[in-house]
Amino acid sequence: MDSVENWAGKSAWLKEKRHSGKQVYKGVLLNAWQDDVILPDGSRSKREYIKHPGASVVLPVFENGDVMLIGQYRYPVQQALLEVPAGKLDAGEPPEVTARRELTEETGLSCRELHYIGFFHPCIGYSDEVIHLFTAWDLAEGRENTDDDEFLTHFRLPFAKAVEMVHSGEITDSKTIISLLRTKAWWDRSGPFPLPGQTPIKPE
């Protein structure tokens, strides 16, 4: 068993090489491909995957420690879910621009401060999608501007309550789970103001 140190370098031999491929579906948002690939041992196999433009999510944090989530019906799973505001990147658009746009469109909020938390791959088995994570504060209220086919409800709740709902299973959307947990970890270390119940970390 290998040590996890320098795991990326040690795993380079696992790379699969694309030999040929074809697009098998072209949709409004998603494009599906089927590729013939060469495996590490030289044999061949097929890989089917979806190309996605990428997305940004943004968690707005209010001065009193509340966050805002949205409720939205998701047709593939046939239920309404609690989520962070999010949206896909337009062609050539920086993730920060997407985050600011989606914050305003879906919540009516704008922000003076926006911090990049990182990114993650939500569905590595069948898509190349990358989701970028942001947190926003110093918020101002405005007017939301959702798409014609987009119907949302808003929920303002304590940050700690939202994290609790992750652990209780009430929040099941992956981007929302990761956004809440990673933002909370960053905020505990470097947040611009303390959250209720948070012990401020003294600078070293």
Tags for this model:
alpha+beta, 39% strand, disordered C terminus
Provide a count of the helices: 4
Mean pLDDT comes to 90
Main beta sheet: strand number and arrangement? 4 strands, mixed
Overall 3D geometry?
Answer: globular
Rounded to the nearest angstrom, the radius of gyration is 20 Å
Helix content class: 10-25%
Estimate what percentage of residues fall within beta strands. 35-45%
Q: What is the rounded distance between the termini?
A: 37 Å
Largest sheet strand order: 7-4-9-8
Count the E strands. 10
Give start-end ranges of low-pLDDT stretches. Answer: 200-204
Structural class: alpha+beta
| SSE order | HEEEEEEEHEEEHH
How would you characterize the overall build of this protein?
This protein has four helices and ten strands. It has helices at 7-10, 95-107, 159-168, 174-190; strands at residues 17-26, 31-38, 44-51, 55-60, 66-74, 79-83, 86-88, 109-120, 131-141, 152-158. 22% of the residues are buried.
How is the secondary structure organized here?
Blueprint: H1 7-10, E1 17-26, E2 31-38, E3 44-51, E4 55-60, E5 66-74, E6 79-83, E7 86-88, H2 95-107, E8 109-120, E9 131-141, E10 152-158, H3 159-168, H4 174-190
Helix pairs in contact: 3-4
Short structural summary:
With 204 residues, the protein is of the alpha+beta class. Helix content is 22%, strand content 39%. Residues 200-204 have low confidence and may be disordered.
